[in-house]
């Protein structure tokens, strides 16, 4: 777009999903919205968050018939939810852990508890640079969420689930130029956890 491309733009970047000139695409759930957008000249079509898309495939019809009053959703997050730098950090951490026990792994007589102790010590010894994206070592661990804390106890990934699900119409993205007061009244009562 910055280079002047005026054709259709199809992407999955989370940074584009909430733009006023974009439609979140989930055919057949919002096929009518997609067709209306094409007729109105919209050129930006963005894939939704994977959790939201899977949820809407199952619940979209219930939303369209106003049969859902409230819902909650929980997910297990993958490192990929935080983006490429998070994935790189995870792979680098795995490499560091593997290197720390390579000689033990190469020796069939080595004790698994020694390998475990060495891995744990290596995890605890990772520097701030080695845990910059996650804030803690993810390799060999579970952490409560991926991506960033928005400062209100909600992760960015959780926010995406609620914000994208609540988009109007039907229940996807509002079209440019629509009466936003109407769209605000039709927000779906969804709470993400």
UniProtKB/TrEMBL annotation:
Q: Is Calcium included in the keywords of this UniProt record?
A: no
The answer to whether keyword Oxidoreductase applies is: yes
User: Locate the Semialdehyde dehydrogenase dimerisation domain: which residues?
Assistant: 59-167
Q: Where is the composition biased (Basic residues)?
A: 183-193
Using the UniProt annotation, give all residue ranges assigned to the region (Disordered).
Answer: 157-193
| Biased segments, Basic and acidic residues type | 157-182
Family that this chain belongs to: Belongs to the aspartate-semialdehyde dehydrogenase family.
Protein name as it appears in the record: Aspartate-semialdehyde dehydrogenase
Protein's organism: Cupriavidus basilensis OR16
